[in-house]
Structure formats: structure tokens, C-alpha cells
Amino acid sequence: MKHVSGIKKTVLAASVAATMAAGLAAPSIAVAEVSGTVGVSNMYFWRGQDLTEGNAQVFGSLDYAHSTGLYAGIWGSSELGGTEYDLYAGYAGSLGDFSYDIAYVDYNYPNSGEYAGEYRDLQEVILSLGFAGFSAAGYFGVGDYGRGDDSVENEDNYFTVGYSYDKYGITVGTWDFDAEDTNYTHVDLSYALTDELGFTVSKVVDADDLSAMEDNDDALFVVTYALSF
């Protein structure tokens, strides 16, 4: 099974974090906000991989954020051979320059076509921390890959560390697969030209012998345009 599927909500996470920070500034007033995003990208980029093999991606989200720090939403995307939708809920907040976020995400691939055996439904618990431009996150696999009799236990994890300054960012991501000798690590360099238009260059820098990314020597150049409303 190819270990790919996805949540790519950098733009969404930033907007939710901003909403949370605003809420914490006035805890005596319970305020809720509904927002969303729509966007396009030249590829479905996820964790150092191009999931659409060079084809464009269309995506969008609808989100609810409360001033207490609670939030929930749905994110949908075109997918190679089908579609994807993700359901998520969590709690985020900040204390000075320190920020935190814990979320549960349910990834769903209702009609993934010929890839039905590879892009499988799964769930993750995500814990992320930030301080003065630095960030770290863990994506911990829970539940199963797939549903019903064909499901298998999800014991795969993914970890990132990063730093952002002004419009620039760097992220290092590492898959920790349950299967031996299948891990890989990638480095992403990003630049936000505007609030809507961003660019990312990603390169796999290390891969185990049995990793699907072991022979992936090409860098990816990603262009994403997203609008918030």
C-alpha cells in the first residue's frame, strides 16, 4: 500500500490560529466565526510528494472557530482518480509568543477509483507547538487504514520542525512508518508573495531502501493560490 493521503491546510491553520488569538484577547465575550477557503495548485502536494503526478488540484474548506479555542471544519479536494474530504476538530490557543494546537482529523476517499487500495481512509491526532517563528508538530496515526473487513491498523507517524520569518519559511518533515526501512525525510522552502499566492520548493533528502521515495531525486516546485472568505 502506498502511504499517501492528505491534509494540507497551511493556509487554513494560519487563519484558525489568527481567530484563536483574537478570541483569547477577549475571553469574556463568546464569539464564533465561520470562514472558508477556495484554491488551486499546480499539483496535490503533501508531505514531500506530488499525489496527482503533475496534474492540478482544486480544494476548499468550510470552518467554524470559537473564541474559546475550539474549532471544526471540512476540507475537500480533487484527487488523482477521485476526490477526498477531511473532517476535523480541535482546540488551539496561545500564551504570549507560545502557541499550541491539538486536533483530530478523519481523512476520507469515497471514490478513489483505481487507487482505492492505496489511498485509504485513515485518522490522525495532530499536536503542534510554536514559539517566536519556530514550530514543531506530530501527526500520530490512530484507528485503521480503510474501513470494515479490509482495514489494517494505522501505526504510521509523521513529524515536522520548521521556522518562518516574514514571507519565508523552511520545514523538515519525516515519515516514521510502522513498516521497517520505508521512512523518508524531505525539506520544503516556501515563499508567500502575497496573502493568496505562495511558492514551495521541496526535495527528498533521505529515504530508506524500501521507501517509495528512495529513487525520487527530483525537486518539486509548487504554486498555490488560495482565497479566504
Describe the secondary-structure layout.
Elements: H1 10-25, E1 32-41, E2 45-46, E3 49-50, E4 57-66, E5 70-79, E6 82-95, E7 98-108, E8 122-131, E9 134-142, E10 144-145, E11 152-153, E12 157-165, E13 168-176, E14 184-192, E15 197-207, E16 220-228
Antiparallel strand pairs: 1-4, 1-16, 2-3, 4-5, 5-6, 6-7, 7-8, 8-9, 9-12, 10-11, 12-13, 13-14, 14-15, 15-16
Per DSSP, what share of the residues sits in E-state strands of 2 or more residues? over 45%
What is the helix/strand order?
Answer: HEEEEEEEEEEEEEEEE
What is the terminal separation in angstroms? 37 Å
Low confidence ranges: 1-28
Coarse morphology? globular
On the 0 to 100 scale, the average pLDDT is 85
Largest sheet: 12 strands, antiparallel, barrel
Quick one: how many beta strands?
Answer: 16
Which structural class is indicated by helix and strand composition? mainly beta
**Major sheet: arrangement of strands:** 1-4-5-6-7-8-9-12-13-14-15-16
Helical coverage, percent range: under 10%
Please state the CA-atom Rg, rounded to the nearest Å: 17 Å
> What is the number of helical segments per DSSP (H or I, 4+ residues)?
1
Task: Walk me through this protein's architecture.
It is a single chain. With 229 residues, the chain is mostly beta strands. It has a domain at 10-164. Helices cover 7% and strands 56% of the residues. It is built from 1 helix and 16 strands. It has one helix at residues 10-25, and strands at residues 32-41, 45-46, 49-50, 57-66, 70-79, 82-95, 98-108, 122-131, 134-142, 144-145, 152-153, 157-165, 168-176, 184-192, 197-207, 220-228. The strands form 3 sheets. A 12-stranded antiparallel barrel has the order 1-4-5-6-7-8-9-12-13-14-15-16. Strands 2-3 form a two-stranded antiparallel sheet. A two-stranded antiparallel ribbon has the order 10-11. A hairpin with a 2-residue loop joins strand 6 and strand 7. The protein is globular. It starts with 9 loop residues before the first helix and ends with a strand. Mean pLDDT is 85; it is low at 1-28.
